[in-house]
Structures are given as structure tokens and as C-alpha cells.
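Hi all, posting the design record for the shared folder.

TITLE: backbone redesign
STEP: 1 of 1
STRUCTURE INPUT:
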């Protein structure tokens, strides 16, 4: 759960104002977060940046109107969050490299782009931390994987962890584990939404309206998740409490287990991991 303890962060620049950058930005604008030196953000479109015009803590720079927008944004920033599309990363890093001050921490949220790629395009006096947040960041419930680069210090890492704790929970893992993490927490919301879709279809097939099905299924997923979060017991124990011997739930769970659900999740996440490695290799 997101901490409400006061959080103090240094000046931050967001390069790219897509959905993930905006989710993190929302966390930084929470009342308990203080960003000394302010928040800067860049986007190609001035129209998109105008959506933040009423927020005094954020200064926007439009690249279509100012060729030096990215360099202006990073000047004096301690944390620089690179949130552009992966294919745009090398050129962007080359553009800002000599505008970064010594000690700057460059934070990647670009899927599949390695620390090595970042470090190859940036000067030695800049450190890199690679991250993998997921979409529940939008509601402050992200799980973010964080991996230090070869030049990042413990203090650098702590700053990045504090940044992402404003939108949820953080796991620090070695970079080789980050792609595997992406197949669980990164892709995980899609798996949950798929299960919800299919259970809602099953409810409609049993005669419930679409609205009734949504209430039952979405309420059940939300309630089960909150019960798990509030409990000291693990999921297996909570499942056993719902599953009375020789009861209806036991029969349903048996069907799911006989269908090889455990193997299915292993194969699905293995497939996602294989694709992540293909993307990292440029295929």
C-alpha cells in the first residue's frame, strides 16, 4: 500500500508525457510529496502539455515548438525519467547527454531497453536505473521492478525507489530478472482482466445480465484482493477456507486444476519472457 509518510525528492524531469509518465506524475503531485526544484515535463504536443497548465508545480516544454525543449527540461534535474517509446531512446539520450549535470540519475521506463544501451549513450558522470512499472500506477497501486545500473550508487537507487513508492510498491531486482518480472507484474493486469472477462461471460451464460455479471465478478475480485491484503494468511490458505470438503467450490477448483491451470500460467509467462528477449534483441 502507498505510504503516506512525507516524501522529499529533488528536481525531476519527465521526457515524454504518455500514460505511464502521467501516472507517476500524479503520484508526485500528492499532498505528502515535496519535489524541491519542481517538476519539468516534455511532450511533442503543446496541446497535450496544456492539460497540466493549471498545475503550478509542473513546467511543460513542447518539442514541436522548441528544439531545445528536452535539454531545457533536464538542466538542473537530479532525476530524469525517460518515458518515450523504446525506439526513440538512443536519439533522445544523444540529444540530452551533454546537458545532464554530474550526479544526475537517468531513470528508464522504456520496455526492453537495457542499462547497457543507456550507459553507452550517456557520460560517465551520469548513472542509470532501469524500471518496469505496471498500469495500476494510475490508481496508486503499481508494482514496479527497479534494477540498478553499473554506475548507480545506493543513494541513487534509494531515490528511484522513493519516486516509484509514490505510486505503489517497489521490488529491487538484478537487471537479468527484470524481463521475468515484466511477465508477472508487468503483464499481470492483462491476465487478471482476462479472467474477469471470462468469468463474466460464464455468468451471462447462466442467465445474469451484463450489469449483474460485472457486479458479481468485479466485486468478487476486488473483495478477494482486499481480503488477501488484510490477512496474515497466504492465498492457498484463504482458498482452502472457501473450499468446503465435497462442496461446490471443491468441484469447480478440481476442474480448473485438471485443466492444467498451473502449467498454463507457466507456459504463458514463458512465452512472454521469450518475446521480451526477442524485443531486446531487436526482432
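Okay, here is what came back for every position:
SEQUENCE:
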Amino acid at each position: 500500500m502507498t505510504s503516506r509518510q512525507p516524501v522529499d525528492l529533488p528536481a525531476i524531469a519527465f521526457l515524454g508525457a504518455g500514460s505511464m509518465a502521467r501516472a507517476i506524475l500524479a503520484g508526485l503531485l500528492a499532498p505528502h510529496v515535496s519535489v524541491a526544484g519542481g517538476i519539468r515535463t516534455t511532450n511533442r504536443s503543446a496541446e497535450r502539455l496544456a492539460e497540466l497548465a493549471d498545475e503550478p508545480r509542473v513546467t511543460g516544454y513542447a518539442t514541436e515548438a522548441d528544439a531545445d525543449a528536452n535539454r531545457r527540461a533536464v538542466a538542473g534535474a537530479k532525476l530524469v525519467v525517460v518515458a518515450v517509446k523504446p525506439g526513440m531512446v538512443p536519439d533522445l539520450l544523444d540529444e540530452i547527454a551533454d546537458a545532464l549535470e554530474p550526479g544526475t540519475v537517468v531513470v528508464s521506463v522504456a520496455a526492453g531497453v537495457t542499462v547497457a544501451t543507456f550507459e553507452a549513450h550517456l557520460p560517465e558522470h551520469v548513472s542509470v536505473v532501469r524500471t518496469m512499472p505496471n498500469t495500476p500506477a494510475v490508481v496508486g497501486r503499481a508494482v514496479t521492478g527497479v534494477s540498478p545500473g553499473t554506475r548507480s550508487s545506493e543513494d541513487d537507487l534509494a531515490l528511484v525507489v522513493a519516486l516509484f513508492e509514490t505510486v505503489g510498491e517497489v521490488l529491487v531486482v538484478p537487471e537479468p530478472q527484470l524481463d521475468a518480472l515484466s511477465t508477472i507484474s508487468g503483464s499481470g493486469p492483462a491476465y487478471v482482466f482476462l479472467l474477469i472477462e471470462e468469468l463474466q461471460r460464464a455468468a451471462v451464460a447462466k442467465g445474469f445480465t451484463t450489469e449483474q455479471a460485472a457486479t458479481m465478478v468485479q466485486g468478487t475480485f476486488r473483495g478477494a484482493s482486499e481480503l488477501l491484503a488484510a490477512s496474515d494468511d497466504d492465498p492457498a490458505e484463504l482458498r482452502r477456507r472457501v473450499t468446503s470438503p465435497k462442496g461446490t467450490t471443491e468441484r469447480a477448483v478440481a476442474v480448473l486444476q485438471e485443466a492444467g491451470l498451473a502449467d498454463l500460467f507457466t507456459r504463458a509467462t514463458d512465452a512472454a519472457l521469450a518475446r521480451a528477449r526477442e524485443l531486446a534483441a531487436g526482432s
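COMMENT: The chain has a mean pLDDT of 93.
Let me know if anyone wants the other runs.
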